[in-house]
Amino acid sequence: MSGGEEEEDLYGDLDSAPVAKKLKSSSSTAAAAAAASSASSTVRLAPLTLHGIGKVYDEAHVADMQKQIDTLRAENEALKRNMGTLYRTAKAELARKDDRIATLQDQIDATGS
Predict the structure, then answer these.
(1) 37-46 average pLDDT score
(2) What is the longest distance spanned by two Cα atoms in the chain?
(3) Percent of the chain as helix, strand, coil, to the nearest 5
(4) How many angstroms separate the CA atoms of 85 and 101, rounded?
(5) Predicted TM-score of the model (pTM)
(6) Cα separation, 65 vs 50, whole angstroms
């Protein structure tokens, strides 16, 4: 496709837009206003979409998803608590072993000298 054809495909309907009609001829202001009012009366709001990908979710599905989110949040908090406890336990165990190593080293130094 050439650049002109792409432009035609993308912007081919601009001439039929109410604003374009209004700008083309000031004498047909009534016709443009009628086209604009008929176009706005048929405009409907799109149904609820998620991130604009075109999937429509009903309230039950949204409620199920919210329940899953709540469950995952609770699980995440429990895992964070467990990870923190494990870290503190490992840190305390290392400190205990360092103390034990220091004590044993002191015993070796005392018997060796």
Answers:
(1) 52
(2) 114
(3) 80, 0, 20
(4) 24
(5) 0.43
(6) 12
Query: Which residue type sits at 86?
Result: L
Residue 56 bridge partners (DSSP):
49
Neighbours of 69 (CB within 10 A): 10
Contact 32, 26 (CB under 8 A): no
What residue type is 18 in one-letter code? P
Helix (H, G, I), strand (E, B) or coil at 71: helix
Gap between the Cα atoms of 22 and 10, Å rounded: 21
Quick: pLDDT tens for 57-111. 678 888 899 999 999 999 999 999 999 999 999 999 999 999 999 999 999 999 9
> Cβ distance 56 to 38 under 8 Å?
no
Closest residue by Cα to residue 36 from 16, 52, 57 = 16
